[in-house]
From TrEMBL, chains A, B:
Renumbered residue ranges of the record's region Disordered: 1-29
Residue ranges of domain HTH lacI-type in the record: 25-79
UniProt KW keywords: DNA-binding, Transcription, Transcription regulation
InterPro entries per the UniProt record, alphabetical: HTH_LacI (IPR000843), LacI/GalR-like_sensor (IPR046335), Lambda_DNA-bd_dom_sf (IPR010982), Peripla_BP_I (IPR028082)
Organism: Streptomyces cinnamoneus
Molecular-function GO terms, alphabetical: DNA-binding transcription factor activity; transcription cis-regulatory region binding
Superkingdom per UniProt: Bacteria
Official protein name in the record: LacI family transcriptional regulator
Length: 355, 355
DNA sequence: CTGAAAGCGCTTACAG
DNA sequence: CTGAAAGCGCTTACAG
């Protein structure tokens, strides 16, 4: 008899209508179990009209019995769009980018898209590798916080229809949508704030100058000093790595030399935190304004005055622009610049020591 | 002549061998342009042996000319595994989970897999929706920080071969791999530390008790008190929302009542930060130990003593376990528990006010 | 209302 | 060394 076939254990059930272990039932399996055609199953799964209640029920029963779940990868292959976007940031672990990440996710979710994530680790090669891997998966769009300065490698992808928006820093050597913070204006305002509180000797410690945001902030510092008619001594300006060791050394040098600065403008949150430590160890108050807000800045004493960006808004704006492009909005690449906000908390309002 | 066909603008090039705008060249396009078979292109693209240098060059030229990039979605459909994993956490914007996220990414990268991300927003329905969406995309594996307490919805997926590891909190109503922190032991140690510094009246403010980690930490608090032979007044124990308003009210109540506690044990980083604010406003030192480390804890005054978890290790451990499962390691579900580390910084070593 | 055929862009299993 | 055929699991376009 046909039933004398060897009993099928959990690891392999050749009996028709049931998938083998580790495999998954397909629409074909559902169709044969329900005794209908493939297209009818497709109609039920996708809620398309034109199926009698009785047929629908039979299909639903088969779906439940087999534990069928539509394979969206196959669907996607046929439909063209993948309903997924890729986001490349510098470091998924960096608290500064976390709200940006979440904001992008929310917008993607509103549009029914999934989010693929990756960290460039501030390495141009890794950025490219990730971006192209995402494109190979045929993401509909790409949001990139660039690490590199040459994005020509993306030209074929963009031409092929991958919507691409750069955030936080502009693209290099290609013309593309970008959503940025007004780094120049923010830094200028922060330094002007120190000037307004009587400082004339203001130090700048920032990130490496090849990073766009760092260069812009340094430019803002210089502009504020020039506007105020203040000279800038070369020894007051220190762009470079944000490694605590270097920042610490530079802050100590500027604050304890023969003719010390009376205030510090720090170019990003990591620099600011190290500067706070140095000042605390110094034992005397030093005026400080930092670029980027950070948690607990208000709990330190003195509380730290900052030029705040809005990372969530950066992400939201970029993602919305991306989906607008995907919906067919054409036009020249856009450059959106978001404002900063000066948050006075105490450290930036300290006067210079009365000479 | 054939060349009298209407000129083809950028939006549509019917000329054979070139894709229309917005579409992408396929292996078939490459094959016909190079004058070879489809399989030969596949061999070149995948670096398989058995192609003469001359043929290979012709194929490479066609690839370059057309800007071909293999469609990994199609490849995946045929191969079975998608080389992607999904990670569901509570909130991509939460700095606590950011290092976990990055650690998972690094392990995935080591295994050539991409990372799809999502936030449950502490909502069980949204967790399920995300998990099933990831499964529909046929991720190879799933790492979940669960929001819900019933994960039976994942049983068909797990049976179908989706490797699944829970992190930070265990799965509900199913038996599955889990990587957890020793919340009980950590809390017990933190409270015992306060006891060792002379405190007998210690308050506990924690998260909602239906959250596994919160319940475990409360259990640790009670165990430490009991071990020390100290009674626990009901008014000293406050599990509930971590919203600043509630935490603030509870901290103020415990610290300013008729018979106030002399020390506070706070159940997570958000609670700790609010407690620090309340204590700062109070104007007198109060001993404090918090569960979870946080940035700048050492810069506050007094610096905050914490029971630290290692979120990156949590993520790394979970991801490694996941890939071991994907490599075929069978066996009963595992439960890994990672130790905490008490970090004395000052606030936890304050003595009770001399009565 | 229902379904057979063709095709999305690859890989697998074979055959020359 | 090379390639035609079949198939991964769906959807599209059509026909009954």
């Amino acid at each position: 008899m046909a039933d004398t076939a060897p009993p099928s254990g959990p690891a392999g059930t050749p009996r028709s209508g049931r998938p083998r272990y580790g495999a998954r039932p397909t629409m074909k399996d559902v169709a044969s179990r329900a005794g209908v055609g493939l297209k009818t199953v497709s109609r039920v799964v996708n809620g398309e009209p034109g199926v009698t209640p009785d047929t629908e029920r039979r299909v639903q029963d088969a779906i439940t019995a087999l534990g069928f779940r539509r394979n969206d990868s196959a669907r996607i292959l046929r439909k063209g769009r993948t309903a997924s976007i890729g986001l490349i940031l510098e470091d998924l672990a960096d608290p500064f980018y976390a709200p940006l990440n979440r904001a992008v996710e929310e917008v993607a979710r509103d549009h029914g898209a999934l989010l693929i994530n990756g960290s460039s680790a501030e390495d141009a090669d890794r950025e490219q590798e990730l971006a192209l891997a995402f494109c190979a998966r045929r993401v509909d769009g790409l949001i990139v916080i660039p690490a590199g300065h040459d994005h020509r490698y993306l030209e074929p992808e963009i031409a092929a229809g991958v919507a691409t928006v750069f955030v936080d820093r502009p693209a290099g050597l290609i013309d593309a949508d970008a959503v940025l913070t007004d780094n120049f204006g923010g830094a200028r305002e922060g330094v002007a704030h120190l000037v307004a509180h009587g400082h004339r000797r203001i130090g700048f410690i920032g990130d490496q100058p090849h990073i766009h945001t760092a260069a812009e902030r340094l430019r803002g510092y210089r502009a504020a000093m020039e506007t105020a008619g203040l000279p800038v001594d070369g020894s007051w300006v220190s762009p470079g790595s944000t490694a605590p060791g270097r920042v610490r050394a530079e802050a100590e040098r500027m604050l304890t030399g023969p003719d010390p600065v009376t205030a510090l403008f720090t170019g990003n949150n990591r620099v600011t935190v190290t500067a706070v430590r140095v000042i605390a160890e110094l034992g005397r108050p030093v005026a400080l304004v930092g670029f980027d807000d950070f948690e607990l800045a208000d709990l330190l004493s003195p509380a730290v005055t900052v030029v705040a960006q809005d990372p969530a808004r950066l992400g939201r704006t970029a993602a919305r622009l991306l989906f607008r492009r995907l919906e067919g909005v054409e036009g020249a690449p856009r450059r959106v610049e978001l404002p900063t906000r000066l948050v006075p908390r105490g450290s930036g309002e300290l006067p210079p020591p009365s000479a």
